């Protein structure tokens, strides 16, 4: 099952889609290994494609973009070369950056299992047929996205990893996401059984 993804809308003028993360430098000529968040890497990482970078404000890459020079598969791993990143030192300086690409509405249909944050916020969170809370926010972390769920029972926030194993279904039309969380994610384990002593 493809990994669920979120889309972000940083401003009104453009819509952006998160498509990958740079995980490590590869070789001496500026290549970088990718973690993919897109179902169409060969279509996304074409020469000339321009990516906005999500990096810490302290990074020399903050506020800059990268343009694809070459994309290929090496030993089944996706590897990308960017213009201006010509050696290992330059490649290492941009490791861990998350790549976002401007996306027009006409091309949105090619991405399966991808949603904008505003489509997810407000959805009911359903577990075993019962509503356990509501999505109030989406947090974007380097490793994965988290759905911040406000619980219906005690009005607290639970962080739910937005991965297919835990969020197997997103139904925007029905206004819900289905979750299959591990034990203890929504419950405070032993406390549920009442007082333990006076």
Briefly, what is this?
The chain has 198 residues and is mainly beta.
Mean pLDDT: 82
Overall spatial form: elongated
How much of the residues is beta strand, in percent?
35-45%
Q: Can you give the helix content as a percent range?
A: under 10%
Order of helices and strands: EEEHEEEHEEHEEEEEE
Number of helical stretches of at least 4 residues: 3
Please give the order of strands in the largest beta sheet.
Answer: 2-3-6-5-4-7
Low-pLDDT runs: 8-13, 105-110, 189-198
By DSSP, the count of extended strands is 14
Which sheet architecture does the biggest sheet show?
Answer: 6 strands, antiparallel, barrel
Query: How far apart lie the N and C ends?
Result: 50 Å
Radius of gyration: 20 Å
Class per helix and strand makeup = mainly beta
Structure explained in plain terms:
It is elongated and about 55 Å long. It has helices at 41-44, 88-93, 117-120, and strands spanning 5-8, 16-26, 31-36, 50-54, 65-74, 77-82, 98-102, 114-116, 124-127, 130-140, 145-151, 157-161, 169-171, 176-178. The relative contact order is 0.18. β10 and β11 (145-151) form a beta hairpin. The chain is mostly beta strands.
């Amino acid at each position: 099952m493809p990994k669920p993804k979120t889309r972000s809308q940083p401003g009104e003028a453009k819509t952006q889609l998160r498509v990958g993360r740079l995980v490590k430098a590869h070789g001496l000529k500026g290549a970088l290994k990718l973690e993919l968040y897109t179902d169409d890497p060969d279509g996304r990482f074409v020469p000339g494609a321009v990516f906005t970078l999500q990096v810490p404000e302290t990074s020399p890459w903050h506020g800059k973009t990268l343009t694809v020079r070459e994309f290929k598969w090496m030993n089944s791993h996706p590897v990308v070369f960017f213009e201006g990143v010509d050696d290992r030192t330059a490649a290492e300086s941009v490791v861990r950056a998350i790549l976002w690409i401007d996306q027009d509405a006409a091309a949105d249909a090619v991405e399966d299992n991808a949603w904008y944050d505003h489509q997810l916020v407000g959805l009911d969170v359903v577990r075993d047929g019962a509503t356990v809370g509501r999505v109030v926010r989406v947090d974007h972390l380097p490793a994965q996205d988290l759905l911040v769920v406000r619980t219906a029972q005690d009005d607290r926030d639970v962080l739910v990893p937005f991965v297919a194993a835990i969020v197997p279904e997103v139904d925007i039309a029905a206004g819900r996401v289905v979750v299959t969380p591990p034990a203890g994610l929504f419950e405070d384990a032993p406390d549920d059984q009442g007082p333990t002593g006076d």
